[in-house]
């Protein structure tokens, strides 16, 4: 059985990291959970077009 999540490493601009940390905290999510949420929404929007 494949794991449901996969660990990846990415490099982000420091200003984006700070903004995502703030948004994640406001949404009561971890940094990773927030990025995952945003990416899922983005991919869904792209696939609807």
Strand content: under 5%
Largest sheet: none
Work out the number of β strands. 0
Overall structural domain count: 1
The percent of residues in helical segments reads 55-70%
Number of helices: 2
Instruction: Look at the helices and sheets and give the structural class.
Output: mainly alpha
Overall form: globular
What radius of gyration results from the CA coordinates?
Answer: 13 Å
Secondary-structure element order, N to C: HH
Distance between the termini: 32 Å
pLDDT average, as an integer?
Answer: 94
Unreliable parts: none
Structure explained in plain terms:
The structure is a single chain. This protein has 49 residues and is an all-alpha fold. α1 packs across α2. The protein has one domain (14-48). The chain has helices at 14-26, 31-48. The termini are far apart.
